[in-house]
Amino acid sequence: MDKGALVEATECSDGGGAGSFSSLRAYGRALAQTPRRLARRACAATAPSEEMSRVRARSGAQMARALRWPDLVGLGLGGMVGAGVFVTTGRATRHYAGPGVVVSYAIAGLCALLSAFCYTEFAVDLPVAGGAFSYLRVTFGEFAAFLTGANLIMEYVFSNAAVARSFTAYLGTAVGVDAPSKWRIAVPGLPKGFNEVDLVAVGVILLISVCICYSTKESSVVNMVLTVVHVAFILFIVVMGFWRGDVRNLTRPADPEHNPGGFFPHGAAGVFNGAAMVYLSYIGYDAVSTMAEEVERPARDIPIGVSGSVVVVTVLYCLMAVSMAMLLPYDAIDTEAPFSAAFKGSSGWGWVSNVIGAGASLGILTSLIVAMLGQARYLCIIGRSGMMPAWLAKVHPRTATPVNASAFLGVFTAALALFTELDVLLNLVSIGTLFVFYMVANAVVYRRYVAPGDEARRRAAWPTLAFLGAFSLVALCFTLLWKLAPVGGVAKAGLLAACGAVAVATVGAFQALVPQAHEPELWGVPGMPWVPAASVFLNVFLLGSLDRPSYVRFGFFSAATVLVYVLYSVHASYDAEESGATVLDAAKVQDEAGCKV
Fold this sequence. Notes:
It is a single chain. The protein is an all-alpha fold. Helices cover 67% and strands 1% of the residues. It has 23 helices and two strands. The chain has helices at residues 3-14, 24-32, 34-41, 48-52, 69-80, 83-97, 101-125, 132-137, 142-175, 199-214, 216-244, 267-278, 285-289, 298-327, 338-341, 350-384, 403-419, 422-426, 429-449, 454-484, 490-513, 530-543, 548-579; strands at 185-186, 196-197. It has a two-stranded antiparallel ribbon. The longest helix is centred in the middle third of the chain and has 35 residues, at 350-384. The radius of gyration is 24 Å and the shape is globular.
């Protein structure tokens, strides 16, 4: 240890165990050492064995391993089916893809499946509750993990608030109250988008928070029951759509004078823009990976639970999209409640709208249960890492759940849902999801091709980092050409083909020249490095389909995250890992006997 670091360690130990935050003077000294601490901590990667032993011990009691693959499939279905279809399908169809929204869902589903493979390899090898945060912490270090973890929590909180407010609208439809404003309280003087108080949404979020604090297994059972009923509603919608629909609606707009016709009225660009929007529908499978610490047999249950749920949900989404497109021409679809509104104008079929509203309400409840389970575990693991207050990491000894993290995020989400409208919330969600999936895909390649150990990592890291950077740059060039080059013409097609060829050549050269340094013992991503590279490419491409305001908001939030890391988290982490103030060095716990391969 260098002299400056030794002085710091002495000062922290003199501070009564509180380290950098024991007093204003101690915090001032810590701020003065910020560059040194950033250099030591920002890229510091934790060993997997440390994550599963010493770091996990900071939560006190352990989470109960009570989940099996049927629970995970149910959680995956419950987490994905509900929010996406009932919130974003109408807008993606009306404004972007038209009837081709079914292809948008297929593309988004493929992207989600490739990312799911990357998540699964990490979750099987590192069965802890941290999900992408833990995966990036053991690969790229704590700064990348913290930036990703903050975006994950943002994704969940904003998505949950948006979905909870949509629950009010569908509950109203189920009981015959069409206008959501009748269930909300207008507050004069507040800006538009923040001036309608939704007490129903707040009540739902708080009720689910109590449920997930009580027990994970019981929450899974409730989710399973609601999911089975909800899937029955989905099949009902599909059957009604095919029965009552008209195939001509797949190519014929309601107003052909003002709107283009055809299955792809806005071309391939509209399909991919639609895919970026409906990607919100696949938020949920990553929450399954956060349950890894509570899975009985991770090597068997996690691959089935994560990948299986993505495949089933993709099929359901595509069927629902086709049925909706058959019911109405794309330019006549109601963007707020596309399925239930499709039956309102049909004589004698108004009751179907009420049934769909009830089914959507159940789906929204299941997606909230799963997402709130996931967000609490992310925050719990960030607390374990020392980068957030340690009380957030505590697991209650009786319920075996992260009660503090669950309650804190439940209250915060409820406060956001109380005032904020759906449009304000949705734009922040897809970009955070795509960014996190992009990072995990890069991480699984890095971990396979860079050997553990300081010296070995330094020697082998540069070829892999160069490949990841070059490939991302090629994907970005392809995306910019697609987005900005004039439509049509041989020149654009030639440039896009050239970018695709370079991308394929880059992956092929990397595979031929750089040997794998690590083979997973239990489950690994097939087709390495092609599958994670395809995930990287698709995520970059879908990121390029989002609008400018989304990037502005994402930039502001990421800047705020960096500020929190520099002013608080790096110092808390330094105290925990370097000074020994909060580290349980003697704690070497083994995995529970119930964790079987």
